[in-house]
Amino acid sequence: MPVVSAAVSDGTRRAYGSYWKRVLEHWGQRRLDEPSPSEIEQLAEYAKTHVVARRNARGGRSAAEHLIAALRCLYKRAVADGYIAAADNPALKVAKPRRLPS
User: How far apart are CA 61 and CA 48, in angstroms?
Assistant: First the structure.
């Protein structure tokens, strides 16, 4: 995570930083190639159910979407740096939740 965080822009770090922290809390001791797409879906569901309730809340859909996007960013860097093969990227095998109409 620190390598990825240092390599991305400030805006990306602000957008995904809290989600990367959540991933570290849940999977901090695991290797990068261990989480499966099913486990990513479970973590996205956890993020969805543990959001801060706000007046304009959408049921946590954005939290799940952003968590998956943050993991896609992380794994994209891992592929680019040669830590995993592109075919082994579990984040690309998980669909982002559809956005509700505004």
Answer: 6
Report pLDDT digits (tens) over 48-65. Answer: 888 777 766 666 788 899
- Assess if residue 16 is contained within a domain: yes
pLDDT tens figures, 35-47: 999 999 999 999 8
The CATH number of the domain where 30 resides is what? Answer: 1.10.150
Q: How many domains does the chain have?
A: 1
Nearest to 66 by CA among 24, 5, 20: 20
pTM of the model: 0.87
- Domain limits for position 76: 2-93
Residues ≥6 apart with Cβ < 8 Å to 4: 20, 73, 74, 77, 78
